[in-house]
Amino acid sequence: MGILEDLIKRAENSCELCKNQENLDIFEVSPSDGSLETSALLCDKCKNQFEDSCELDSNHWYCLSESMWSTVPAVQVLSYRMLKKLDNQELLDMIYLDEETLEWANKGLESFDDSIVQKDCNGVVLSAGDTVTLIKDLDVKGAGFTAKRGTAVRNITLGREEGQIEGRVNGVKIVILTQFVKKN
Question: Could you tell me if residue 19 is inside a domain?
Fold first, then answer.
């Protein structure tokens, strides 16, 4: 039997991520040696979502809450990588990968675009883990409170969009525009 037939048998003739049964094909999980162990059977939609040129459909990926528990390492790696791409911290906290599988999963992750440099209101470059201070009262939409001027936001993470950082204020993780913060 060839790899495709073995994958169809292993996956019970359905996509190993979303369980769709149409337009199935082999997807090699990089770095791959082309073997059954480093391949997965995916539908067109899942396969296209792993390509850089395709915009992510977050509604399609609700299936990851089930597929991340697969006993197949290639499927675990794909689930982990897509959860990272979607920045779904809740499921990332639950997923279990042994050391070897985690190392494999991290090898294929694209690094974030390093060309985006986050700067505070004074033009000082911000780095992940920095502490910043709010320079203006900010109404936090959806949380029902106002982040007051002078509030220290510790251990920030850099946003994927230019001019945005993430941090915790009153125990709530929020996105803050860099024009309203200064580095301590």
Answer: yes
pLDDT at position 14 is: 96
- Of 64, 74, 18, whose CA–CA distance to 43 is shortest? 18
pLDDT for res 52: 61
Range of the domain at 170: 132-183
Which contacts (CB < 8 Å, 24+ apart) does range 171-175 have?
172/140, 172/143, 172/145, 174/140, 174/143, 174/147
Domain count within the chain: 2
Residue type, 168: R
Residue with tokens 């790696």: 77
- 162 within a domain of the structure (yes/no): yes
Around Cβ 42, how many Cβ atoms within 10 Å? 26
**Which band of pLDDT confidence, cut at 50, 70 and 90, is reported for residue 155?**
confident
Whether residue 113 has pLDDT greater than 90: no
3-class SS of residue 77:
helix
